Each structure stands twice: as C-alpha cells, then as structure tokens.
Amino acid sequence: MAWLQKTDMRYLALAVFCVLSALPQPALAWGQLGHRVIGQIADERVSGRTRAEVLLTLGVEDLAEASTWPDEERSNPASFWQNDANPWHYVTVPDGMTYEEAGAPPEGDAATALARFTQTVRDRNAPAADRALALRFIIHLVGDLHQPLHVGNGTDRGGNDVAVRWFGEETNLHRLWDTQLIESKNLSYTEYARWLGRAIPPQWEIDWWTADPMVWIAESAEIRPSIYPQSADARLSWRYGYYYLPIAERRLQQGGVRLAAYLDWLFSE
Fold first, then answer.
1. DSSP line for 29-78
2. Which residue(s) pair with 152 in the sheet?
3. Is 268 helix (H, G, I), strand (E, B) or coil?
4. pTM for the model
5. What are the residue ranges of helices labelled H in the chain?
6. What per-residue confidence (pLDDT) applies to 83?
7. d(C-alpha 215, C-alpha 168), whole Å
8. What was the pLDDT predicted at 10?
9. CA separation for the pair 225, 223 (Å, rounded)
10. Region class of 102: left (phi > 0), else alpha (psi between -120 and 50), else beta
11. What is the CA angle 197-249-268, rounded to 5?
C-alpha cells in the first residue's frame, strides 16, 4: 500500500507538471545570461556599504546569482507566484504615451513592484525572508525594465505575438530579445560581463548613473518601435544581429550601471 501511495504521488506530480507545461508561459526578460551579466556588471560597481548590506541580506548569494531567482520561481505552483507576482515583470506604455500617462493596472506591474519591494528592504523590522525576497526581486526588476520589450505597447504581449525566424528557427520577437540575440555570442555570463563592463567609458557611466525607474522605462519605450521587423514572419539573421545586438548590449551595460546606482541609493542613509 505504501508503494502504491508513492506511485500515485509520482503520477499526480507528473500530471500537474504536464498541465503547467501546457499553459501559456509568461515572458522572461533577458533569460539567465542577460540577468547575470547585469548582476555581474553591477557587482563590480556598488559601494562597499552596499556590498555589506547585500551580504547581510542574501548571505553568499551575489547579484548575478540572485538576478534570476524571480524567473526560476515562476514555475512554483504557489498562488503568490502564479497569480500575484505574474504581472510584476513588465510595464505597459502605449505608443505616444509616457508611463506616467498610462499608469499602472490594478494588479500592479514592474514599477509598482519595484517601489513595494524597496519599502520592504528598507524596513529593518521586516522578516529576514521577506527582505531577501524583496532584494532578489529588485535586482531582477532593474534588469527587466532595461529590456525594451518588457516595456510593452499593450498590443502584442511584448512581442510574444510577433512571429519571426532567427537563422531559420521559428521563434518570436520577445524570445529573440530575451535570449537568442545575446546568446549568439556564445559567451559565459562572466566573460560577457567582463567584456561589456570594461567597454563602458567613465563618462558614460557618469551619464547613466540614475536610480530613477522612469528614466529606464522611457528609454526602453523609445527604443522599442525600432526593433520590430518590417514584415510579418520575418526571416532574421546576420543583418538584424549586426544592427540590434549592439543595442541589446548597451541595455545590458546600462542595466548593470543602473542596478549599482539603485542599490547604492537603496542602502544609503
């Protein structure tokens, strides 16, 4: 009987997995590579105080490791992850509008989640687990808001409904920007972060150093229209990569600098 119960549980787990796998999957920003690149670039730029605060909050988990955790938990069947947290990875800014004009939906978005989690991290009386969750989300959301298609126009699910072919493979524009475009360099996140980090001139770092999410959102909304292909079911390869990989890499660089700026501001007195 005990063996039968264990077998039944395995079948139940398999059935739940199959059901969840069949559901439409939400978009992920940058994928693991992009988020870790942003985290690594930021880790090399935060102040000593910030590094100590992160260590107190997350232990040995560095910014690159923490950056992907909110995406990894999106398969968690708990209601918090499947319902509450689902809309917090993107914002919607229709063409010709600003985020302030569009506003946040009732369920919230990446901008409102960032503000919420900022309050939690700054609350020294909040439970340690809540502060750790909040800090991981902050690290992740700064990266999300630097991916142009996570500032969606409200018509195509951030490019998920835009079918394209990338070197002959069927995909969509959002997935291309999340992972395929930057993974074409075939670099580890530490290699990529080192290459991109050392290519940031000091003046750019000074110019980019802002902890204001409205600046990041406005930039992504400005970039967004230009990255759409000119034709439906477009066949994209070397030429698209030639023009748009540098833009994606610039957003990774900016995301790393802004994450450092935001964390330094977050933990400032």
1. SSHHHHHHHHHHHHHTTS-HHHHHHHHHHHTT--HHHHTTHHHHGGG--S
2. 92
3. coil
4. 0.88
5. 2-22, 31-43, 48-58, 63-66, 69-72, 79, 99-102, 110-122, 128-144, 173-175, 181-183, 189-198, 202-208, 213-223, 238-266
6. 87
7. 36
8. 43
9. 6
10. alpha
11. 55
Write out pLDDT tens, residues 213-234. Answer: 999 999 999 999 999 998 767 8
265 to 11, 25, 146, 230: CA distances (angstroms): 49, 34, 18, 41
Which residues is 235 bridged to in the sheet?
165
> Is the distance from CB of 24 to CB of 172 less than 8 angstroms?
no
SS3 (DSSP) at 84: helix
Q: Which residue has the tokens 């502060």?
A: 131
Question: Across residues 25-34, what is the average pLDDT?
Answer: 73
Q: How far apart are CA 203 and CA 234, in angstroms?
A: 37
Residue linked to tokens 């990774």 = 252
Structure tokens at 16: 């739940």
